[in-house]
Structures are given as structure tokens and as C-alpha cells.
Amino acid sequence: DSAASILHQQLAVAAAAAIHGRVLAAVGDPITASGLHRAGPEVLAACGVSGPKRRSLFDLADKVLDGTVDFAAIGRLPDEKVEALLTCVHGIGPWTAHMFCMFTLSREDVWPVGDYGVRAGWTLLHGGDELIAPRELLTEGERFRPHRSAAAWYCWRALEGARNAAQPT
Fold first, then answer.
1. Region of residue 144 (left: phi > 0; alpha: psi -120 to 50; beta: else)
2. Would you say residue 169 has pLDDT above 70?
3. Are 40 and 71 in contact (CB under 8 A)?
């Protein structure tokens, strides 16, 4: 969900999972707008949620409650509209919207060119010396349309494999 996407922004997977688990325990599963407001910012802070992420979560909750963001209808929108809708929330940018489309809406043709892991994985797979620029990666990804989400997944796995291989056993 979008709350989970916010919680996972710019964190290592293990750290994000730990914080997410604490938030679920405090707020309830699934995370709802009313659940966030019942818990309040102090409880989220105690769970390890940073100030900027708390601001984003409460802005999202407010926009859900006032009808600006309608999760009952969002799955019927094209990716571009989902991104426009979500990025009206403070702290949600294209990366979070892309992850929401890929992992919550299970969209098959998302190409998150701003994602470091996708860029680094692509560079690794293609033997580049410098990290590929988002604009260049956007062009390169066209050949994988309409399955760019799978291509992104392979980029992430390539990077993960390289990191695991580099660690001593």
C-alpha cells in the first residue's frame, strides 16, 4: 500500500521492514487513515518513523479522508494518473508512485528510471563504467515495453547478486 511505500523510502530493506512492523502493531493492519490519526505522530515517532515520513503519512491520511485520494478507484486509473494523484501528497514523488504501481497495483509496465537499484543493475548487466543516466535508461527501456516491470526486477536481482557475490563467506 502507499503507506508502506512511504515507510520504505530511502531505507535498507531490513530497517524498513522493522519500522513497518512496529507501525502495523501500533496502528493496525492494514494501515488506515483513521488508524494513523488515532495513533498520532508521537506513536509513529516511537515506532521509528522520521518527521518527514510522519508528515507524508498524515498528509496522505488527510487526502484519503477528504476524498482527494480514493484508493477504491485508483486501480482503474492509468499509471500516469496514479502518479499524478499520489504525487499531490507531500513527500510522495515519482519513485514512491512507481513502487505503488508495481507492487500494490501489480502493473506490468512500470519503468522506474529514478531508482538507483534499477540504474546500477542495468549498468552492471551492460558492462558500463558509469551509472546510466535516467534519461538514457528511459530510452533503453522502450524495447521491454509492455513488460518493463520485469526488466526492472532483473536489474534489481543483478545488483543483489553482485552484492552477495562480493561478500566474503
1. alpha
2. no
3. no
